[in-house]
Amino acid sequence: MDFQLDSEQEALRDAVRGLLSKAYDTSETRREVTKQDPGWGDKTWQQLAEMGVLGLPFAEEDGGMGAGPAEVSIVAEEIGRVIAPEPFVEAVVLAGGLVAAAGTPEQRAEILGSLAEGGLVPAFAHTEPASRYELTATGVTASGSGDSWTLNGVKEPVLGGARADLLIVSAAVDGGTGLFLVKPDAEGLTRTGYTTFDGGRAAHVGFANTPATPLGEPGADQSAVIAATVARAQIAYGHESLGAMETALRTTTEYLKTRKQFGVPLMTFQALTFRAADMYVSLELARSTVTWATLVLLDGGDATEAASRAKLQVSKAGRHIGQEAIQLHGGIGMTAEYSVGHYTSRLTAIDHALGDGRHHLNRLVSTLGDHGVVEPLP
Amino acid sequence: MKLQLSDEDAAFREEMHTFFTTQIPQDVRDTVAARRELSKEQIVASVQAMNAAGIAVPNWPVEWGGKDWTPLQRHIWHEEMQLANVPPPLPFNASMVGPVIAAFGSQEIKERFLPKTANLDIWWSQGFSEPDAGSDLASLRTTAVRDGDDYLVNGQKTWTTLGQYGDWIFTLVRTDPSVKKQAGISFLLIDMSSPGVTVRPIELIDGGHEVNEVWFENVRVPAENLVGEENKGWDYAKFLLGNERVGVAPVGSTKRTLSQAKEFARTAGPGGTSLLEDPLVAAQIADLENEILALELTALRVVANSADGKPHPASSVLKLRGTELQQAVTELFVDLAGPLALASGAGDGSDVPDLARVATPNYLNFRKASIYGGSNEVQRQIIAGTILGLRG
Questions:
Q1: Which of A199, A137, A132, A201 is nearest to A168 (CA)?
Q2: Three-state DSSP class for B89?
Q3: Domains in chain A, start-ordered, CATH in brackets?
């Protein structure tokens, strides 16, 4: 078992860190960027494309870099470290990942090539107002045959749904859940965008006899593809959270060292430093589980259980660290001007994307009787 | 980055698994599985079986019986042992006094003590804590005053675990009261059969006799029993407490105990139904499994990164979280036993399963885990100070 990065992976980390720490040098820069639509920086997105980051996990023949889960985890963690609003996990790992897993060779080359170059930003339209975290689609239905299909129903909230250049929509088909491509100018498509509490964007997306192209085999049940790709995105979100938690903890410890009350630095008070120590414990335990989940992905086996384990651990750690980061700062932590509350906000958003801790605990409960002990090694 | 063990480590793991499940006396493993106390003879038999195979003290220098294993291999050794219901070698011998003698003792002291220490022919007790020196160990007051070729030792040690079995005791004693408290301490080996040594039992809340007070009244100790240099004992004690990074978190035994608790739960509901169908019980067990996984993976990260000899910063996490989870599982067992947990004193003729009878004594006994070896508050202090740089 080896948790270490190799020198190429370290170089990737340093390059992405350099780019993003320049793009988001202060919390104020991020606030400015997230105030304007689409909620992230076009220039930063282009720079990420030039660095090869947007095509990282895709095959070279599809226009990608042919890298794997380790490289994805590195980028996601750097995104989290500055809570960069660019939709790396959403557009590349999740939406792009679905195309890579289910698309025909032509679809893959066209969509992934353009995504990798920064020209096309896709979004996965899956969540429905009544679906909670289910991976099946019921509220949006597909009908048709061959290449000619139409969709009806509502998806909401769809992250990045208003700005997306291409929607990848899950919809009920005979015998399961299919995946469809919908263009922004498609007939009967309505998109109403709004902001989310973490500075992001989401949308109400309506389909009324909206023409759609099947992703991959027409009418096929894509549940397995969705589950596997969502697991990859869950693990990537785990890494994004690790980056965010690490910064939240570092910001908090710096504050405890410099902020004075009663004439002394706050770190004089053990009631505060012990709580910071517990934050560190939460972070390290989450780091272990999330990194292991990436190792499981690398190993090529089914990663859905590992993804649930990582998501549960991160959910607990993210709440703990996010809440304590604000509390240990005191009033300043409540302000929009100061950085730390935005980290808590982003961690909360990630927690509720693709299943929160309770949801994943429930999944783990369903297989509780199948094993004596949980073995980290295959 | 890679999930799988190397072929070599996988083979090593298999070798350890086979050894521990076939070469350790079955009654020892049965007693551990029953969560019952081991006798002195059982502990000795288990250690001697390991020592005969050359794997009782892998952390020692090779010339004294150690193994040239990687940190990961030592971790695997320790985990497989626990998973097989085998008690780890007596820590006072294998992890404490042995490494100190090997590192700081004279050749004569090494030859005199190390082979017998490895084989548990000498049962060592630990004489560190005193009534007024717990977490603040350097405040200890037991004195050793030089008198010709001997030291005269006076004072009291406490919390001496299994001291009733002890042949020898390694002590921290004050040899120079005139200097800063850490600078006047020496590391002295004392034969417990010496005149003036008295061992008195301390009964604990579980009703057991695990720890003792040890009194020294004008005990004459040959000066040759000093380890290393006089007044350097604090350095040796720090070495002793800091050099054991493998095995600080009882991952394997906690994992095994949780699995046992889960098995117990399958028939612990009303009318022999499964408590795993109770959503609250199931959620608690699933959550504990996930927490223990995180701990185990953290232990693996620590051993994988401690090859350069420096402790990985996350190692303090292991003691802190490891004992919390160990305690959480003992608590779970009491909850699963429910009203049967009251039957702790039941003997022959009782219908209460043995695991329910021992649940509460174990729960009470393991409150110790977050206190010994540097209390969890001390661990938080280390994390805050050393890792986060928060120094009050």
A1: A137
A2: coil
A3: 7-120 (1.10.540.10), 123-221 (2.40.110.10), 224-370 (1.20.140.10)
How far apart are the CA of B264 and the nearest CA of chain A, in angstroms?
12
ipTM over 0.90: yes
Domain with CATH 1.20.140.10 in chain B: 245-387
Phi and psi angles of residue B172, each rounded to the nearest 5 degrees, phi first: -105, 125
Out of B291, B295, B301, whose CB is closest to A3? B301
At CA A122, angle to CA A121 and CA A127, rounded to 5? 140
Interface of A with B in 54-73 (CB under 8 A): 70
* Torsion sign (Cα): B95, B100, B103, B107: negative
Q: Which two tokens stand for residue A340?
A: 């730390």
Q: Tell me which H or E stretch contains A205.
A: strand A201-214
User: What class does CATH assign to B124-231?
Assistant: mainly beta
The single residue listed with the structure tokens 């509490």 is: A197
Buried b (16+ CB within 10 A) or exposed e, B59-89: bbeeebbbbebbbbbbbbbbbbbbbbbbbbb
Partner-chain residue, chosen from B256, B387, B389, that has the shortest CB–CB distance to A373: B256
Structure tokens at A30: 């991020």
Q: Is A194 on the interface with B (CB under 8 A)?
A: no
How far is Cα A52 from Cα A113, in angstroms, rounded to an integer? Answer: 11
Whether B380 contacts B374, CB under 8 Å:
no
Question: Which letter does DSSP use for residue B39 in this model?
Answer: P
Asked if omega into B61 is within 30° of 0 (cis), the reply is no
CATH class of B245-387: mainly alpha
Whole-number mean pLDDT of chain B? 94
Name the segment(s) of chain B with CATH classification 2.40.110.10.
124-231
> What is the per-residue pLDDT across A180-238, written as a single tens digit (0 to 9) for each?
999 999 999 999 999 999 999 999 999 999 999 999 999 999 999 999 999 999 999 99
CA angle centred on B214, ends B212 and B215, rounded to 5° = 145
Give the active site residue among B79, B80, B210, B244.
Answer: B244
Torsion of CA A42, A44, A50, A54, to 10 degrees: -80
User: How sure is the predictor about A314, in pLDDT bands with cuts at 50, 70 and 90?
Assistant: very high
Torsion of CA A43, A48, A49, A50, to 10 degrees: 90
Give, for A73, the enclosing helix (H) or strand (E). helix A69-81
Cβ contact, residue pair A274, B258, below 8 Å: no
Reported as type and span, the H/E element at residue B255 is: helix B251-265
Interchain CB contact of A278 with B (< 8 Å): yes
The CA distance from A103 to A125, in Å, is 16
Is residue B191 within 8 Å of residue B219, measured between CB atoms?
Answer: no
Alpha-carbon dihedral sign for residues A112, A118, A120, A125? positive
Mean pLDDT, residues A270-298: 97
What's the pLDDT tens digit per position in B201-244?
999 999 999 999 999 999 999 999 999 999 999 999 988 877 65
pLDDT of residue B245 exceeding 70, the answer is: no
